Amino acid sequence: MKFPTYKHETQKHEQGFFHVAGCDEVGIAPLAGPVVAATVILDPVSIGKQRSKSKWWYRVRDSKTTNEDERAELLPFIQDHCLDFAVGIVARETIDEINIHQAAMLAMKKSICGLKKIPDYLFLDGIHKIKTIHMAQESVIDGDEKILSISAASIIAKVARDEILHRLHEQFPEYGFAKHKGYPTKFHRAAMERYGITPEHRRSFGFVKICLEKIGSYQHFQESLSIPDLI
Fold this sequence. Notes:
Elements lengths: L6 H8 L5 E7 L8 E8 L25 H13 L1 E9 L1 H7 L1 H14 L7 E5 L10 E5 L2 H4 L1 H24 L5 H4 L5 H10 L10 H9 L3 H9 L5
Parallel strand pairs: 1-4, 4-5
Antiparallel strand pairs: 1-2, 2-3
């Protein structure tokens, strides 16, 4: 398991940048729900010089390597040691209109624009920069494994998206959204093939298209159950 450090941010501070931010998104692969991003400006005073078990950020890392309970524990520590943070959400409808890549970039832009403090320098997870954001920025492959600010952002974004999927589970408990969070698990795909497509399923995704053509929508499935048997 890889743990991020704060050395990238420190290097930028030494170059004269003060508000150094990290940005990450979650929710590219799921078949349902929004894509969510977060941007974080950590407080450098609270970091210290070296990682140790006594530090608040000792277990902060890429959200994909944490479980839901651990993220819930880490979230308040991250929020309490930020100079600023913000979340950006792009809904399913927009994902289908502009494609998932553009939606992810839009979510990241929204989270950056949601900050009260304007970053001097921005680290982004991945290979793409945000062309419509005019600030110094750097995209880093596997940045969520290497750069503490990006790791912190990934946890904030993941918790925010999980909360949305928990609410979706309350509306459509048959699909198990609280467990798989919209990802294409065997259970989720089987539920789609049985019950149809909910309003939050991404219609531009291949498997969703197939299910919509074969089974239809969840609403149609429910209506079919309410039709009395006249035979």
